[in-house]
Design a protein that fits this description.
Layout (H helix, E strand, L loop, with lengths): L1 H21 L12 H14 L13 E4 L13 H14 L3 H4 L2 H7 L3 H5 L5 H11 L4 H14 L15 H12 L3 E9 H5 L2 H5 L6 E4 L3 E6 L2 E6 L11 H9 L6 E4 L5 H8 L7 E8 L6 E2 L11 H9 L2 E4 H4 L7
Parallel strand pairs: 1-2, 1-6, 2-3, 6-7, 7-9
Antiparallel strand pairs: 4-5, 7-8
Length: 331
């Protein structure tokens, strides 16, 4: 009898272990179990359940994400700006004409407000021009890839591409596993983001919408190249985001995720008077210990005031980084 009881106990424990092991892992394990997480998973379940009023066909499951401050950190400055500053500092060391430029001098001394002054941010545009224009697209891609492999964030001392948000990485994968197509729609340069978007986010270059300018085709030494210019600059920010979505995606999103007033128009375009079920999500930077805390007074970019005020009336989900994420960056 004692042996029989031992066998039964062993079998019972084995079954219990199997049941535990067979439980599906939480695809959003980096998110705390808060209303923000529930609103996202509930929305995805609603639009992917066949034969229900809120079901959305897979071809219309378009999700758009801002990049800076939404998918990865943007403080103390957007990473593309850090790349541009490093590039002009490198050139200033050996090119007197570049070193004499007042905006380059501002960049060298770290005077970011001077670069961002004015509605058109002329100083910033000057720095971007010096660091981006006149080279072939292949040369630009190589420079960005080399910089990404060597540059490190000033606070976290990690490569910039290791500062993506783990909860957002999980969200991208969760959406794709449920038939969504995920796009980046960002004020950052499309060429800059396309260098790493596939590797870092699993988002192919053709699903990246960003600020662009015309490229010029040439044959150099019998080889076709594209030259970066400043002609016909399209800034994919604020009201430019809905225009970019229409022009480059061609479908209205049902899910939009941003973190600043620059994303407000994108969330409005996604959620207001859309014939399909929709969800707008705002990432609120509230965690000074693990990342940064800002809204009305950001370190450089990412101001969040009017979009945050509109969130409750519009029914958008506000993600409190400190309370809703149990992990910020991947270990």
């Amino acid at each position: 009898m004692r042996n029989l009881m031992a066998v039964l106990l062993t079998v019972l424990l084995g079954l219990t272990g199997c049941a535990s092991d067979d439980r599906p892992a939480d695809p959003l394990s980096a998110w705390n179990d808060t209303p923000a997480k529930t609103s996202i998973t509930g929305f995805v379940q609603r639009v992917t359940t066949p034969d229900t009023p809120d079901f959305v066909e897979p071809e219309d499951r378009v999700a758009v994400f801002d990049n800076d401050g939404t998918l990865w950190a943007e403080a103390p400055m957007p990473f593309q700006l850090a790349n541009a500053l490093d590039e002009v500092k490198r050139r200033a060391a050996t090119e007197p004409d570049v070193a004499a430029d007042p905006m380059v001098q501002a960049a060298v001394r770290g005077d970011i407000p001077a670069l961002l002054a004015g509605d058109r941010h002329d100083g910033l545009m000057r720095i971007m021009g010096l660091s981006h224009l006149g080279m072939t697209t292949d040369e630009f891609d190589d420079r960005v890839a080399d910089w990404m492999a060597t540059a490190r964030h000033p606070r976290f001392d990690r490569p910039y591409d290791q500062l993506t948000y783990e909860p957002q990485q999980q969200l991208l994968e969760y959406l794709r596993s449920n038939g969504f197509r995920t796009y980046i729609v960002s004020g950052g340069g499309a060429d800059f983001m396309r260098v790493f978007s596939q590797r870092v986010y699993g988002i192919p270059p053709e699903q990246v919408v960003g600020s662009t300018a015309t490229v010029k085709y040439e044959l150099r030494d019998g080889k076709p190249v594209l030259i970066k210019t400043a002609d016909y600059l399209f800034v994919d920010d604020k009201v430019g985001k809905p225009a970019g979505i229409h022009e480059f995606i061609g479908r209205r999103p049902i899910l939009a995720v941003g973190n600043s007033d620059g994303d407000q128009a994108m969330l409005e375009y996604t959620t207001i008077d859309n014939p399909r079920p929709t969800l707008g999500v705002l990432i609120h930077h509230t965690d000074a210990e693990r990342e940064y805390a800002y809204d009305a007074d950001p370190p450089s970019t990412g101001k969040l005031v009017t979009a945050l005020q509109e969130a409750a009336p519009a029914g958008w989900t506000v993600v409190d980084m400190k309370n809703d994420w149990n992990t910020v960056f991947a270990k």
